Amino acid sequence: MKLEGIEPNSVTFVSVLNACASVVNLREGRCIHAELTQCGYIPDVYLGSSLVDMYSKCHSIEDACQVFNNIRTKNVCAWNSMIGGYVKCEHAAKALDLFLQMQRDHQEPSSITFVAAINACASLGVLEDGRHIHKLVLQSRLESNIFIGSSLVDMYAKCGSISDACRVFNNMPQQHIISWSSMIAGYVKCGQAEKALKLFQQMYCEQLEPNNITFVSVFNACASLEALEEGRHAHAQMTIGRCCAETFVVRNSLIDMYAKCGSIEDACRIFNMMTKRDVVSWSAMIVGYARDNRAQKSLDLFRQMQREQVEPDSFTFVGVLSACSSLGALEEGKLVHTHVIGCRLEKDKFVGCALIDMFAKCGSIYDARKVFSNMPTRTVMLCNAMIVGYAVHGCGKDVLKLLEEMCLEDVALDHTTFVGVLSACGHAGLLDEGQYYLEAISPLYGILATVEHYSCMVDLLGRSGCLTDAHQMIKSMPCLPTGSVWMALLGACRLHGNLKLGEAAAERVIEVDPGNASGYVLLSNIYAAAGKWDLKARVQQMRIQRQAYKPPGKTWIEVNKVVHSFVANDQEHPQINEIWAELKRLSVLMKQAGYTPDMRFVLHDVDDDEGEFSLWHHSEKLAIAFGIISTPTGAPLRIWKNLRVCGDCHTAIKFISEIVGRSMVVRDANRFHHFSDGICSCRDYW
Q: Model-level pTM?
């Protein structure tokens, strides 16, 4: 048009500015604005509104605001463009302020104005402001507008008032796919995924065609319920319908749904089919692998993501750090921490929690505390992560000190806080303190004591040797004891060799959860320690008949960023001969220092020589011997085991730490043990 010498007019400029807004081309939009100025146009309300809309959609809210302020006479279109721009650019508070200013200027809002203002309330979670705007909608007689109704449903749901959302939805004279989708998403947002799926089926019965937004909400509902079959059915409905599944959002929600439902293969298939992937695609898959106990796969995928130069977000780092936690891979975790700092996400509360959890589970409570101390604000989520970290390291006094700080700083305590506190008391042997907090949790802190709190207290009493009191607490609990409560008592009976009470506890564990191998294993170990080999064999046979799978005991150690695993009497490791030679050398030195093998931990009916041989080839000792021969003299060692470390290994590691002059951190299924100079941090209370 310009090449042919035809001068553009205001209509031309409005159309071209709308085009720039549609394709989010800020550079071209600014050029058009400059040309408009050169042509002598003073932005009237229509040109001004188009400029505001263009700058807003191109995420240049400062330019939009400057143009808006220069419009002399503003009509509803100008106000709508600016209010909508603030909402789009995540300045919801400014959008509401401008909406109030619009009212003060006696400008009548339109349906578009109300939608933008309601969306601002939804973003801020301000229920009362949302209700006020709803009243204005009723006064304007616009409640039948489909877009306003759908926005109200969405706002009420996001503000936590699902009853209001449901009432608006049911009162809508005409329900459009948008309102159905908003209501389904609202149920998911408020944790009522079952109702979301029910509404989705009702929608199908009324022969309404779902859109991408509907399916995303349905997949999210299936993910929260771990409802794999319902998720597959919805996926099939989407495939045979007219809805396109090629968007990032839909495919990402499918990956997330399949991963959370335990079908990581389906998630991987969809991920591999994607020709283009965004950060959400990668993150969903990384988190999915971590959740499915495929931590190494999660780390490998993160490295591939880095090679493809996709910038990770906080969700990505949470997944990767979870994988590091599972593997106990401290060095890998430190590298990820460096990357977090490089992305300026170290202050993010979710990443902060993941970092605290990773460092604590990898044996470095010092680094966990450092991350916690550097967070700008202390939320209950961050404090709980630190409390749990302290608890598994046996730092009971530190937990109680942090609890006092939380109270002084008015941090809201919750159920998880006291699970961590009572667990810490159990690991540190703080019996009086544990009893105080259990009794104070409801009257003093206003939190209902649950079965998890009582389970921690039973564990604390049991570890302290108060088995009768522990049993009495179970019988007098205000809630029905679960398998975990009886397991706590059974573990204490194994620790203290109480055969009679152990049999009673095991009977209840097996009754509540016959498919859980732990009850059978602990009872058989009690029989083995008492030399009752026939009863041990009978329990083992019962476990096999009931198909209660017992995971093999494994120990891992990270050396030079490579994780090595060992099982008892391992024959597969390429350096096994050198490991055995080191163990033989250590055994001579240990016996000279006073070590005697504890035959109570021989779990088979064999003679003393065979029993001692089996003790020496436990996976913990193999991993430590490998660490000694594979790392520089004096370097600290960190190992982790999937089961509770045996008593003989615990004693042996104390001797080894003193003989070789190294500190050793051992993480087992229950807690951490820090060995140094022949002493363990647990003080033999574990």
A: 0.79
